[in-house]
Amino acid sequence: MRIAVDLNRCQGYAQCAFLAPEIFAMHGEEALLYTPEADEAQREKLIQAAMACPVQAILVDAVDVPAEAVSGDR
Known about the structure:
Its cofactor is [3Fe-4S] cluster. The chain has helices at residues 15-19, 43-52, 67-71, and strands at residues 2-5, 24-27, 31-34, 58-61. The chain is α+β, with helices and mostly antiparallel strands and 74 residues long.
């Protein structure tokens, strides 16, 4: 699963870091650090963290996209 966080939208509420500390962490009071990919075992915590974000800054993409589609090769 791929994770993207809109860091312009993120306000540092840290709900994600509280619910899924193995994926999200706060650096200081406002800077969010996160792992851009998570394995299937972390799905439940990741979904809870995304839903708990007060500003909806977390996007989770569970669809596997073939490398050809990303690179434009067909």
